Amino acid sequence: MPSVFYRLIAVQFISALADNALLIVAIARLVELAADDWAIPLLKLSFTLCYVFLAPFVGPLADAWPKGQVMMAANGLKACAALMLLTGVDPMLALAFAGLGAAIYAPAKYGLVIELLPAHQLVRANGFVEGSTVCAVILGTVAGGLLVSSGLRQIPMSDSLSDFARFFALDSTLHAGMVSLLLLYALAAVMNLGVVDSGARYPHHTRHPGAIVKRFFSENRQLWRDPLGGISMAVTTVLWGIGATLQLIVLRWATESLGLALDKAAYLQGVTALGVVAGAALASQFISLANAPRLLPIGMVLGLLVPAMSGIHSLVWAACLLMLVGALAGFFVVPMNALLQHRGSRLLTAGRSIAVQGFNENGGILFMTALYAAATAWHVPLHSLLWCFGLLVASAMAMVFIAYRSSTKAMA
């Protein structure tokens, strides 16, 4: 791997760590404001909306400038989101602004990976990317838990931090956590200076919004109709929806079934992330692009494991189950993600293919998170919610597997 790839990994690690800590701090802020329970899933929705609505534009944007510069600007937007939270802006609006930065960041980051590496290294590269991202999830959720913990809130602030907090006149006990998030995003933006230009350049296209949107949906259809691209897109769309919703379900399950406070529940999320790291590492070593579709049955098993959470009330067994779920998810998603990137870069450009991928995957997140928010608003019991969620995932993956088998028979 070239040295610039490892610099890219370091930058995206800091940025992803701050993203996950930001979600925990925003949840704590909603709790501090005595918001309704259904408002918590809407935080994830507000973060994801920009991924979907700006998808036609962020791909061409990532291809129009050196991708390191685009990433630096995106991290600057995320820093503004942390500043908004500190000034007392509604957490949902602050998360939406962070989502704007993340939507711009994603095609630049993954597009740069595609530009830097040959196809035969993409599975291994995705293992590194997913591994570092999940490590950021682990440390980000742990950091978020620390930033909202009662211990940190009770530590007296320095005079300079007190003056800084009073300047914003925010009535909150989360000042230290918010300032820490701001500094993390600023660090990620500065670190982007070390990410060199790959040298890849693409033909200029029209800047007319209508033409851009029309071309985007044409490219979206093109990738869905590709046999391998469509199958891998379906899998990653379902899995991203699973991951985002499971993050919120684990928080609720840990507080209701295990009796943990929010900061301790955030630590338990890190156990799932550890499993994803292990699964991603195994996949990057043993699974090739050609063998990725053979992993489809794992998706069905993954869905059927989720309802098992309803019968667990022991912290040890909870950690074991979440570790297994994470390992299966990591082993499954890394090769499928690499396959999708490979097909997308062959059919489209690096930035535009990642934008199409992000549109579909975050559309899955919106759909699944909206279902979870509605279920929470309707006071659906956790036990019933887990069973419905698990069966929905298993059924979706079974349909993808049947479609893949049918397509391979048709091509034979």
What would you say this structure looks like, in words?
With 412 residues, this protein is mostly helical. The model has no long low-confidence stretch (mean pLDDT 79). The longest helix has 33 residues, at 315-347. The two termini are 36 Å apart. It has helices spanning 3-32, 39-53, 55-64, 67-86, 91-116, 122-148, 150-154, 159-168, 175-191, 209-225, 227-256, 262-286, 296-305, 315-347, 350-377, 382-411. It has 16 helices and no strands. The protein has a single domain (3-194, 208-406), classed as Growth Hormone, Chain: A (Up-down Bundle). Helix 2 (39-53) packs antiparallel against helix 15 and helix 4 (67-86) runs antiparallel to helix 5 (91-116).
Give me the CATH architecture, please: Up-down Bundle
In CATH terms, the superfamily is MFS general substrate transporter like domains
As residue ranges, the low-confidence spans are none
The rounded distance between the terminal residues' Cα atoms is 36 Å
How many separate domains?
A: 1
- Total DSSP helices: 16
Radius of gyration: 21 Å
Q: What is the succession of H and E elements?
A: HHHHHHHHHHHHHHHH
**Helical residues, percent:** over 70%
Highest-level CATH class: Mainly Alpha
Indicate the CATH topology: Growth Hormone, Chain: A
- β-sheet strand percentage: under 5%
User: Can you count the beta strands?
Assistant: 0
**Helix/strand/pairing category:** mainly alpha
Q: Please give the largest β-sheet.
A: none
Shape: globular
Q: Round the mean pLDDT to the nearest integer and report it.
A: 79
